[in-house]
């Protein structure tokens, strides 16, 4: 498997950094308030399944941004699911 | 610009359908409860910016699943942002 970095990759990497970073304030908000009542568990379970598939897709099309962004997103999504179940 | 459908596309399309669908229960939950207190506005603003870039990335690498999934996701994200601002 061979990878190369080009302009498209840079756009994808920036996109990945932003969408992955987006999960951080949600995770922090739940952690700080110990409340996740308005957060949809269904949303984050679907996200976990879908992001796992995006990761597989990234490996198939050999696109580093897709692989990296989705790996980190998965970790954040599981932390949100864990807190949602814990704090409700 | 030329597009073709192959196995990778199918994985990407399924991934896109799932991650995009994930936003629907969150949007519905806010609509039904008229409450979005625990939902992070910062998360969805970052998502809107990031998903716009993923859309651009999809156009650059000519991957239909990336283009389609992110178009629909953007619409759902803007509806969530609108309701978050309205219902708080």
UniProtKB/TrEMBL annotation, chains A, B:
It comes from the Bacteria. It holds the Pfam family PQ-loop. InterPro entries: PQ-loop_rpt, SemiSWEET. One of its GO terms (cellular component) is membrane. Keywords: Membrane, Transmembrane, Transmembrane helix. Its main location: membrane. GO terms for molecular function: sugar transmembrane transporter activity. It is a multi-pass membrane protein. The chain crosses the membrane at residues 6-28, 40-60, 66-85. It is found in: Membrane. This is MtN3 and saliva related transmembrane protein. It comes from Thermodesulfovibrio aggregans.
């Amino acid at each position: 498997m061979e990878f190369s970095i080009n302009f498209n990759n840079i756009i994808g990497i920036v996109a990945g950094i932003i969408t992955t970073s987006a999960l951080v304030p949600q995770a922090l908000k739940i952690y700080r308030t110990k409340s996740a009542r308005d957060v949809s568990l269904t949303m984050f379970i679907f996200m976990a399944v879908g992001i796992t598939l995006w990761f597989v897709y990234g490996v198939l099309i050999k696109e580093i941004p897709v692989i990296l962004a989705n790996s980190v997103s998965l970790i954040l999504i599981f932390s949100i699911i864990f807190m949602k179940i814990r704090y409700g």
